[in-house]
Amino acid sequence: MSPVSGNIKDDPHSTIKSWVELYTDSLFAWACRRVENNSTAEDLVQETFLSAFQSIGKFKGESNPGTWLFSILNHKIIDHHRKKMRNAASPVKHSEPERFFDDNGSWRKEARPQPWHIDEAHLLDNTAFRDILDQCMKKLPDHWFSAVQLKYLEEKDSKDICQDLQLSPSNFWQILHRAKLQLRQCLEKHWFKKER
Amino acid sequence: MRKLMHILMLSCRKATELIDKQLHFTLTPLEKTRLFMHTLFCDACTQYKKQSRFLHKLFFKDHTHPEKLPVSDTTGLKKKILNNLEEK
Question: Which of B52, B63, B69 lies nearest to residue A26, judging by beta carbons?
Answer without folding.
Answer: B69
